Amino acid sequence: MRLYHKIMAILFVPLLITTGCKEEAIESAVFTDAGSEPYVAEKSLSSTEILDNSVTLSWQKATNNGTIDPALRYQIYFSTKDNLNNLNETLENGSPFDEATADIDQKKVVGLASGTLYYFNLAVSNTANIQAAYRMAAYETTSGGSTDGAHPYAPKYPATGLTFTDEDLDQQQLAGTITISRALSEEDLTHYHLYWGSNGSTKLNNNTIVKLGKTGSDLTYVLPANTARPSSALYFLVFTYNSYGEMDNGSSLYITDFGIPTNAPQAVAFTDTKGGPSIKGDVIVTRAANEIDVDSYNLYWSSDGSSKLAGSTMIASMLVGTAGNTVHSFTVSTTPPAGATHFYLVSSNRDGEMTSGVGCIIQ
């Protein structure tokens, strides 16, 4: 069954049923060698811009051996007929646009006819030239005079750079000063427009974060405390502007969102196999239900199971990444420090530790 949306995306329910693969997350793909077919977890093709003579497509990168592989190449095919439903149809019926390009997640298809419905699919290939297809999508070019490219009198020079350091330690929240390095020439521009970006060249939407007039010097903008970062916003983008419009190409900066973990371990348990003043045995960690922001679990001595024992140091840091519960073993007799009656465990990442954790009695 097909669902059409004129002008906007016209997406199709795939005719191929993926077998034996879960499409929950890219990281779930596992491969054994370069001869494996590239794995496409999210097969949808999206459009970030539709004009009279062009359609810009974007997609989620495929994986090889469980990770995003920069050697994977992407080739767009298009047709004016509904005949790109799988890899064989795509290769047989589609017209290739440009050449296969490695390590990209969007591309602008130009030279199209205005007011025309086009069908698109994407083939991804590895170094062994084994291919996989995405899901066919259809878009209709506009016919209102909006053609590809900026106005000929729009600014010619972009900002020369962006810098930002997040000062907010909460996930999905930002704060700090954004510095925009002025263009090499500001003769034909009046403003700099700052946006959220879904990638290094595509705006998340057309809503500016701020519009800053040129001053002849670098510009700064203070992002207020607790500014919510849209979930799909991965970049800051800045475009130079004058009365004719924005420059076609902007400058970008990947957003490093600092934030301590918000997902705590579910439990910690220990059974002493030795007895007496010293201990031996395994500390069993029931990991966080969601480890998206967790790099490791840090184990400490405690007097109550809810805080670190004053003056003591970390016992161990157990990295995330293995299946099942995480274990730390006391393989030799160990005497707890004075006052230690419990273990205390917290989630940690590169930005710090959670302020609360879980504990258990030493027994």
List key phrases describing it.
mainly beta; flat; single chain; disordered N terminus; 27 strands; 363 residues; six-stranded antiparallel beta sheet; five-stranded antiparallel beta sheet; Immunoglobulin-like
What does this structure look like?
The protein is an all-beta fold and 363 residues long. The chain folds into 3 domains: 10-140, Immunoglobulins (Immunoglobulin-like, Sandwich), CATH 2.60.40.10; 159-254, Immunoglobulin-like (Sandwich), CATH 2.60.40.10; 267-361, Sandwich (Immunoglobulin-like), CATH 2.60.40. The chain is built from 1 helix and 27 strands. Strands 1, 6, 7, 9, 10 and 11 form a 6-stranded antiparallel beta sheet that branches. Strands 14, 15, 17, 18 and 19 form a 5-stranded antiparallel beta sheet that branches. Strands 22, 23, 25, 26 and 27 form a 5-stranded antiparallel beta sheet that branches. It is flat. Residues 1-33 have low confidence and may be disordered.
What is the structure about, briefly put?
This protein has 363 residues and is mainly beta. It has one helix at residues 87-93; strands at 10-11, 46-50, 54-58, 63-64, 67-68, 73-79, 95-102, 106-110, 117-125, 131-133, 137-140, 159-163, 173-183, 191-197, 210-213, 219-228, 235-242, 245-246, 251-254, 267-270, 279-286, 296-302, 316-319, 326-334, 342-349, 352-353, 358-361.
- Note the gap between the termini: 62 Å
* Residues in helix, %: under 10%
Could you say which overall geometry the principal axes of the C-alpha atoms support? flat
Tally of contiguous helical segments: 1
Q: Given this structure, which CATH class of the largest domain is correct?
A: Mainly Beta
Mean pLDDT, all residues: 86
Class inferred from helices and paired strands = mainly beta
CATH topology of the largest domain: Immunoglobulin-like
